[in-house]
Amino acid sequence: MAISEGVPQPILTDGDPRLRIPSRRADPDAADFDQRVDDLAATLADFRRREGFGRAISAPQIGWNERVIICDLGSGPRAILNPEVTWRSPERQTVWDDCLSVPGQLVRVERAKSISMRWLGDDGYAWTWERLPPDMAELFLHEIDHLDGVLMLDHAAGPGDVAPMNQRNELIGDRRPSNPSDPMAQHARRWTPTGH
Ligand SMILES: [Zn+2]
Fold it and tell me: Is 143 a catalytic residue?
């Protein structure tokens, strides 16, 4: 499976009950799977073109309740299927977060500073990421939340944790490092469950 051209889909926004459905495991053998992945990737690319941000999107955000994430960290779109967090650092971080499904708002969230995770890639291999840097840990915890029907708004402790989008430069700005090298290649290792 390789990501090819798809059709951008409408992005569901907060209040749509479909964003609250816990997603089932992705089934890459389903007949329409590749097309849906292509459409999800096209939706992210279209959003980035229009809004100038957006590092990832999860399938429930277009009403597809399977455990699929598309991320583009600067080296093109990748599909992450059935991700599982295998370790969380005891250290925490507090960051201002944004979301394609919560237009116009930023939310202050507290999350683990680092995680390890494993997932199935669009190359058909199982992969692991060990001890991700803070910006990637925060990103994938946000996306995995979507797969569980959770939005960043659920993490806001009070009204002081929500800010309007026009404060984005001030609150987020360039605090997320751009990744000129391929962070997938930098952090990912192929994972063979049988140990071979
Ligand atoms: Zn989101």
Answer: yes
Out of 5, 66, 130, 143, the active site residue is: 143
Query: Taking the domains of the chain in order of start, what are their residue ranges?
Result: 17-85+114-151
How far apart (Å, rounded) are the C-alpha atoms in residues 64 and 72?
19
Fold of 17-85+114-151: Peptide Deformylase (3.90.45)
Query: How much distance in Å is there from the Cα of 189 to the middle of ligand 1?
Result: 26
Q: Return residues with CB closer than 5 A to ligand 1 (ion).
A: 99
What distance in angstroms lies between residue 156's CA and the mean position of ligand 1's atoms?
A: 14
Instruction: Provide the CB-side half-sphere exposure for 120 (13 A, CA).
Output: 11
pLDDT digits (tens, 9 = 90+) for 66-82: 999 999 988 889 999 99
Label residue 164 left, alpha or beta by phi (over 0 means left) and psi (-120 to 50 means alpha): beta
State pTM to two decimals.
0.90
Convert the pLDDT of each residue in 45-61 to its tens digit. 999 999 888 999 999 99
